[in-house]
Specification:
By secondary structure, this protein is mostly helical. It is built from four helices and no strands. The two termini are about 25 Å apart.
Length: about 170
């Protein structure tokens, strides 16, 4: 069962990584398109910046989840070297619980923003502002899923199989 949970978490992380790559490509294309349109082509299309900004918002919230998964999120590690491993494990559990709580509040509140944003068109695009808030909704839902699975695995004492070089999934960069 725990191995199955770990595979679900790894699959979700893979989907998020692919989505992050796709969104980065969209940001690059529309940023380059904006510059080339402004200085070379001068077409009537004027939504390059809006689409690039929307993609950047999605990239931000996908990236937050990937950073939490890889344990590379910003944190204060001043006392990490002084604490015994049991206290570090307790700190990690408390940190994951706090993050799940914060993302839960975001998940609870964001749907009203999605509803309000549905009526606000982003000029020059086929999108409305709900697409921006959906990034927050999707990101917080993915964070809750990944952190919850990690918490269950951590509390159960499950550790992922290591590769030949001694690294595990938590050692892999995003």
């Amino acid at each position: 069962m725990l191995g199955y949970l770990a595979r679900i978490e790894a699959g979700l992380a893979f989907i998020l990584k692919v989505a992050a790559i796709i969104v980065m490509v969209i940001v690059a294309i529309f940023t380059l398109g904006s510059a080339s349109d402004r200085y070379i082509y001068d077409t009537a299309f004027n939504a390059y910046d809006q689409i690039a900004q929307l993609a950047l918002v999605w990239l931000t919230f996908i990236g937050i989840v990937l950073a939490f998964r890889a344990r590379t999120n910003i944190r204060v590690d001043l006392v990490d070297g002084m604490l015994p491993s049991r206290l570090l494990a307790a700190r990690d559990i408390i940190s994951d619980l706090a993050a799940i709580g914060i993302f839960g509040v975001i998940q609870w509140k964001v749907w009203r923003l999605v509803e309000v944003g549905a009526g606000q068109v982003i000029m020059g695009t086929p999108f409305s502002s709900d697409a921006t808030f959906l990034a927050l909704a999707v990101g917080s839902a993915a964070a809750i899923a990944i952190l919850s699975i990690r918490l269950v695995l951590r509390v159960a004492g499950w550790s992922a199989p290591r590769t030949a070089d001694g690294t595990g999934p938590e050692d892999q960069a995003c």
